[in-house]
Write a structure and sequence with these properties.
The complex is a heterodimer of chains A (108) and B (116).
Chain A: E1 9-13, E2 18-23, E3 32-38, E4 45-50, E5 55-56, E6 61-64, E7 70-75, E8 84-91, E9 102-107
Parallel strand pairs in A: 1-9
Antiparallel strand pairs in A: 2-7, 3-4, 3-8, 5-6, 6-7, 8-9
Chain B: E1 5-7, E2 10-13, E3 19-24, E4 31-37, E5 44-50, E6 53-57, E7 65-68, E8 75-79, E9 88-95, E10 105-107, E11 111-115
Parallel strand pairs in B: 2-11
Antiparallel strand pairs in B: 1-3, 3-8, 4-5, 4-9, 5-6, 7-8, 9-10, 9-11
The chains are: A mainly beta (108), B mainly beta (116).
Chain lengths: 108, 116
């Protein structure tokens, strides 16, 4: 699976959009981009995933660049409960490996 | 949303003792995963289990670890002789669909293992 690079930490004001970037320059054509988050010590929670097209669900939007070498997770209206570590993972199938992720802190 | 259940939520054990961590994954699914997270560190893959066999395992998953599906619904992780460094949160995961491509995984809430 391709390697991903994320910023270590980010802050966001409550009610504003949180934009979390991820670089995956070695991604191959059949690898999907997944985003998970972990709130405190809870089990990781699935957010969204995509292959080429931008995706949106009730939690977030995923923007994947045309060359697929990077992506951005957008939380449109961040709340204090969105404070968590966010993981960007690239994989085809099989096992999912987590990196260090981005620690997002939403501030009042 | 599908649910993955882990028991116990917290277990304290003495060094050298055997522990069994239990997981009830999404029913009728063939893929199951175990991960661990040492306090303050990242989530680490341990092992995947497909159709009653180990599919992949990491370098962490040495001879002291084993996985079983003893009764068709429960999925267990056994640590034969615990060490202090086995203290961690252990998470079980199950993909939404029976396959494991283009599908999300659901994680249990974890078992906190403390080895004293």
């Amino acid at each position: 699976d391709a390697k991903t690079t994320q910023p270590t930490s980010m802050d966001c004001a409550e009610g504003r959009a949180a934009n979390l970037p991820c670089n995956h320059s070695t991604i191959s054509g059949n690898e999907y981009v997944y985003w998970y988050r972990q709130i405190h010590s809870q089990g990781p929670q699935y957010i969204i995933h995509g292959l080429k097209n931008n995706e949106t669900n009730e939690m977030a939007s995923l923007i994947i660049t045309e060359d697929r070498k990077s992506s951005t997770l957008i939380l449109p209206h961040a709340t204090l409960r969105d404070t968590a570590v966010y993981y960007c993972i690239v994989r085809v199938a099989g096992d999912m490996r987590f990196g260090a992720g981005t620690r997002l802190t939403v501030k009042p | 949303e599908p649910e993955v259940t882990q028991t116990p939520s917290h277990q304290v054990t003495q060094m050298g003792q055997e522990v069994i961590l239990r997981c009830v994954p999404i029913s009728n699914h063939l893929y199951f995963y175990w991960y661990r997270q040492i306090l303050g560190q990242k989530v680490e893959f341990l092992v995947s289990f497909y159709n009653n066999e180990i599919s992949e395992k990491s370098e962490i998953f040495d001879d002291q670890f084993s996985v079983e599906r003893p009764d068709g619904s429960n999925f267990t992780l056994k640590i034969r002789s615990t060490k202090l460094e086995d203290s961690a949160m252990y998470f079980c995961a199950s993909p939404r669909d029976r396959g494991w491509v283009n599908t999300e995984a659901f994680f249990g809430q974890g078992t906190r293992l403390t080895v004293v």
